Amino acid sequence: MQVAARLGITRVCVETDATLVKVALMENSYRLSAVGGIITEMKHLMNSEFVSCKISVCKRDCNKVAQNLAAFGCTFPNGQMNTWDDVPQAIEVLVISDLAGSDDE
Known about the structure:
Radius of gyration: 16 Å
Structural class: mainly alpha
Number of domains: 2
InterPro entries: RNase_H-like, RNase_H-like_dom_plant, RNaseH_domain
Oligomer: single chain
Organism: Miscanthus lutarioriparius
Low-confidence stretches: none
Number of helices: 5
Largest sheet: 2 strands, parallel
Strand order of the largest sheet: 1-2
Pfam families: RVT_3 (PF13456)
Domain RNase H type-1: 1-72
Distance between the termini: 31 Å
GO molecular function, one term: nucleic acid binding
Mean pLDDT: 83
Helix content: 40-55%
């Protein structure tokens, strides 16, 4: 979310496969939990940096591209940010597969 804000993106849609994450971001009941600091920081970013921020729940098996992109990102050293001139082949294959199975045609 911080990168999106720095890039000047004003409208975001956050998808999660965890209903509890959505609830935590929309309510105040998680302030004292172990992840309360992270939730508070995310809520602050959502409210101060974005004109619109939609949070939705998406089943994990329906969001394979995001799951694999997140796993790919976890292979980099902590704090390292990467950019690519082209889409990484592993991600491109997943997107093509996802589009092939799409009902939007």
